[in-house]
Write a structure and sequence with these properties.
8 helices; three-stranded antiparallel β-sheet; 5 strands; two-stranded antiparallel sheet; alpha+beta; Tetrahydropterin Synthase, Chain A; Helicase, Ruva Protein, domain 3; globular
């Protein structure tokens, strides 16, 4: 099956995969762009998990302060984004990622990087509150646990940066965004820490 060059280029830009890998994925998916993208993302995630063991001690600190007319100087954020080498830290792609992330943090106010960062007591309290809510609605049995699981997933999306849909493209999560850049750079990229400030809080 002949795959248009434009489609290969578009998928490469989206996933960071190589030319041959991108072409092969499109051929396997019979030209289905979304299916090929899903396959390449899954492969990228597997690679990212392997790279996650490598030390990421380089990177940069990015800041952002709202400048629109209603909240100028009233909301800001600071982020430390790490990678493995100073070379990658100085690339336009890495710097754009840091800027996108700090802008997202200022806009959405996440509390944690990932669900693993939520203190046990906070997680247990959220689960307890959801259980009380579900049981007060008359739900019983295994259905209760399933509903609580769904509510916890929503809680993670609200409070954890990596689980949130990216404000500039809600079809991907922040985790997807970070992984796509990590694939392109072929390095481990880690959101180390962040803080958000709002005047008066």
């Amino acid at each position: 099956m002949a795959i248009p060059t434009e489609q290969i280029k578009k998928l490469r830009e989206l996933t960071g995969a190589g030319v041959l890998e991108t072409k092969h994925a499109l051929e396997q998916a019979n030209g289905d762009f979304d299916q090929a993208a899903a396959v390449l993302r899954a492969k990228g995630q597997a690679r990212a998990e392997k790279k996650a063991e490598r030390a990421a001690t380089q990177g940069l600190i990015e800041t952002y302060v709202h400048s629109d007319i209603h909240s100028a100087g009233k909301v800001g954020a600071m982020l430390e984004l790490n990678c493995e080498t100073d070379f990658v830290a100085r690339t336009a792609e890495f710097q754009q990622l840091a800027h996108d992330l700090v802008l997202h943090i200022a806009a959405t106010n996440p509390k944690y990087i990932s669900p693993n960062d939520i203190p046990t007591s906070v997680r247990e309290q959220a689960e307890s509150d959801f259980r009380a809510q579900v049981e007060s609605e008359g739900k019983k049995g295994p259905l209760v646990d399933k509903i609580i699981q769904g509510k916890m997933e929503s809680y993670f999306k609200d409070h954890c940066l990596l689980r949130q849909p990216f404000i500039r493209d809600e079809s991907i999560t922040i985790q997807d965004l970070v992984q796509s850049v990590a694939m392109k750079m072929r390095e481990n990229i880690v959101v180390r820490r962040f803080v958000r400030y709002q005047l008066g809080e």
